[in-house]
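Sequence, please.
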């Protein structure tokens, strides 16, 4: 699987997004981009969809190490985190598993960086469920 998820119950969508950003920050990640897919689908296609945001999360030290090891790794950055409404009073948070990068590069140093990033993202997910 290319990612892992956690589910939040009884949490309004906007509150869930704020909690995700805070949990990421607690693990050293910043959010470089915030794509509102619901708004984009409405604006571009006039289609109504459930709330769906894609957050581009970046841990600067890990990103720097990865770019030093493999300059083209930027094609796989940042780590995407999806926050989507999964049903009434249910928000699903999906994290890209950084291990997906490992199989796409031959740089040996990427494994340790992906391990560190994965541990941090999993802890961020665990914070959401605490």
């Amino acid at each position: 699987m290319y990612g892992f998820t956690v589910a939040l119950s009884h949490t309004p969508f906007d509150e869930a997004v704020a909690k995700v950003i805070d949990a990421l920050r607690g693990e050293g990640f910043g959010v470089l981009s915030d794509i509102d897919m619901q708004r984009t689908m409405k604006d571009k296609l006039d289609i109504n969809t459930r709330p769906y945001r894609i957050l581009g999360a970046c841990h600067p030290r890990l990103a720097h190490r990865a770019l030093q090891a493999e300059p083209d790794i930027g094609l796989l950055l940042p780590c995407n985190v999806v926050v989507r409404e999964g049903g009434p009073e249910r928000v699903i948070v999906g994290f890209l598993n950084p291990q997906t990068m490992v199989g796409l590069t031959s740089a040996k140093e990427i494994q340790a960086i992906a391990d560190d990033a994965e541990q941090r993202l999993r802890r961020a997910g665990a914070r959401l469920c605490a």
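The CA atoms of residues 56 and 80 lie 5 Å apart.
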